[in-house]
Amino acid sequence: MNLTEQVVRSFQNIENERHRFLITTFIRKLHEYVNEVKPSEEEWIQAIRFLTDTGKLCDEQRQEYILLSDVLGVSMLVDQILHEKNEIQTPSTVFGPFFIENMPVRPYGGSIVRDGGDKIKPLLVRGRIMDTDGRAIAGARIDVWQTAENGMYSGQDTKQSHDNLRGTFLSREDGSYAFQTHLPVSYPIPDDGTVGQLLGYAKRSVWRPAHIHFKIEAEGFQTLVTHLFLEGDEYLANDAVFGVKERLIVRFSEQKADKNSREEYGLTQDYHLIEYDFVLTGVSP
Ligand SMILES: [Fe+2]
Fold it and tell me: 31 C-alpha to center of ligand 1: Å?
């Protein structure tokens, strides 16, 4: 019996069939890879060191392995496999490493800007949460998060308030949602770790096009994890994590403050506007 089969057999006592399949297939593919590339001792040690250093960078605030998965295209591959595509549902994209749970629930039209927001032109994002038949989904939980002007997320940048540019909103009876923020900026993914070294070595860009993250949950529907990207961003064609999808690119318009914006959203100055409807797919019975 060859070595690979011997190792695979040594895991045959795992009772859960799926877990056994996951582990033994991994071993087969890993052995196949090693057989193909025939690493030198030094290369093998370097691989171990790379994985060790990547692990050391992970803690509550930073997840270098998710970033590694992202830049290797694995996150988008998992996304492609898991989320059945139909023409109507809103496409999903990478979750990314910067989500923080349990952000405050803010009222319809509320702002997620906590730090220094009065200096930047507001952006109103609004639309509806709907099912694939166009019916409103009420009470959907919408988590949003984005970077500050310096291209960093709260949590990553300790100078920002914990809940700066993050918040949770609930869709209304007619499925409508709205919140205020400011235009997102393009930003480099953290390049001071192993992932940055890898991208630098490959002469790859570390930039991501400007985007706002969304996680939308509603009972009876598949959770949607996605972004909205800004039309015209210079990095749309070479996102470091391969996350851009055409239908997630949106145009923003310039709006004058008027009676309606003042009364409905408290917007007393001119603002940017993005209107976008999200379509969720039901969980199959
Ligand atoms: Fe992001």
Answer: 35
